[in-house]
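Dissemination and training. As part of the outreach component of the grant, students in the summer workshop were shown how a complex can be specified as a set of sequence lines and then modelled as a single object. The example used during the hands-on session is reproduced here so that future cohorts can follow it. Participants entered these lines:
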Amino acid sequence: MRKSRRFAALAMAAMMAASVTGCQSKPAETTAAATTAAETTAAETAAEKTGAYAAGTYTAKVTGMKEMTVKVTFSDDKIEDIVLEHEETPGIGEPVCESMPKDIIEIQGLGIDAVSGATLTSNAILDGVADCVKQAGGDVDALKAVKKEVAQAEDEEMTADVVVIGAGGAGMAAAVTANQAGKSVIVIEKTSNMGGNTALAGGALNAVDDGSEVAKARNDSVEFHYEQTFKGGDEQGDPELVRTLVENAWDGVEWLKSLGMEFQDGVFTVTGGMWERAHKPVEPEGSGFFKTYKAYMEKNDGITMVYNTKAEHLIEEDGVVTGVECTGETGNKVTVKATNGVVLATGGFGQNVELREKYNAETKLWPTLDESIPSTNTTAITGDGIAMAEEVGAELVQMGNIQMLPLGDPKTGSLSGNIEHAVESRIFVNKEGNRFVNEGGRRDEMTLGLFAQPDTTMFIVMDSDTYPNGDEVNNFNEKISDLVAAGRAYKADTLEELAEQIGVPAENLVKSVDEYNRHCQGGDLEGQEDEFGRTLFTDTDKVNNGINNAPYYAAMRVPTVHHTMGGVKINTNTEVIDTEGNVIPGLYAAGEVTGGIHGSNRLGGNALTDTVVFGRIAGTNASAYTK
Ligand code: ADP
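and obtained this result:
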């Protein structure tokens, strides 16, 4: 659902004092008195500098994580009102859509730093407002020079039983588990909210309820999950860690359910997941996890979230990790000590171009991972935890194993705008309208296949089995009708029309679909291998049985960096191992910051499983640790 937020000038101080979080402004006269002298001065200065505006409302369209409309109303000398229509990610971009317009109005300027972890959203808002300022005849450069000034807070020291660094999926699973073990917990998070990459995920979580009817109907088992995970990573994953992952996956789902998290019925095959064993939460994307963890925290005391605080160095005393030194929001020093253990859960390094290039040079998995290659990750995912662990002697493993997806948004690299639901429902075609790869195969093989296509660009093509009414949402909570209206997806009554819209030769597209359909329906191709080795044509519930149900849909996609499988070495207790093979006492790690589980290629749907399984183990063991 598209969200609209409005912020009015002068209303801010009163709104903040009254803690109003709604989207309507208060009448100016009730709030003017509450405006501070500093705000008034800033506003006057800005107006003097800009030489004022041509009063009116101006509109700009920009792209954050998704398309966004920015409407700014100016009086002669002030930015009066900013309305954003956006669909930014809950917990990541959305809070910035609340805070940044308030800041702009408060200081009457654009000299505001992008919010860590939500750079795309922040810059989109700043660009949109700047565009409107220009349209209104204002001086953008002068406004950029008006800075938001923040006084530096006092240095601070805090202590808890367990300290968790990073409030993504693994960190929050660890925090809740430690709290369930009766421990007080402090969670240090660099950005202004919990979520990390986990919040941006499509939501698929692989887990097999061994021996259940669902598993039996799909010839699935924990053993088969093990085999596909281990072989899918070219047998590079540590077998014991892989076993720990698959054997505890279903228990992880049960645990989430015990906390109130809801999953949709049935299972599906997520891209690169290789089998129908992914569970999809009822809440969109990864938001269900954080709704669940937040609900737990509302009912249970003892977890303190410390946001906008960047962990910099682990504290080591006599060879034991006892805490972490951080930089607070205002540049102050925040020292956090643990009575029991410290859990490192800072995610991977998908947004750190330097590290990507350095380690890709070792494996040469990809032609390049330079800044021209986008990422699905939030901008906060820069490998900080890997550097911190290295400083205390941790061994890093398989750092060159970097996963790409062929499913990036052509502008941002994000997964938004990806129209597929399940592997069985769609094919990929290149700009010539031809299939080029096994679309049910491994993620690395699909992406390498895409790198070899013209303009490294492809289209996902599917029919309306997934979108019977035309206004259902994709895995990223975007309505297919909105994506079509925004030109980010295409819809047509015939394949020929669809081909014309996406600019590929119609006869090739029709041929590609025909051949795929013949495989789906058995018939004359029964027993014959697909040209690209595809085996996943129809799902067990027979929802997807060929691309033959008009209207048809397509969306353009490009390669994007998704997951870094290398990282800090751990054992099955999530204890961090040093370069000499010894445990580093007091330090635990879980989630994408760790390495050696997924090998050279991670199965789709195994990352969320990783956060829950290893996050819980880390939370349990960090709670039990005593110096
Ligand atoms: P995982 O899937 O392993 O849980 P996520 O990407 O979901 O990883 O979450 C990692 C979290 O760690 C993010 O919320 C990110 O902002 C946070 N983070 C990254 N670096 C730091 C740091 N230096 N200090 C505090 N938090 C950090």
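Residues 117, 165-171, 188-191, 195-198, 310-311, 345-347, 380-381, 384, 591-593, 611 surround adenosine-5'-diphosphate (CB under 6 Å). Students were then asked to discuss how this feature might be tested experimentally.
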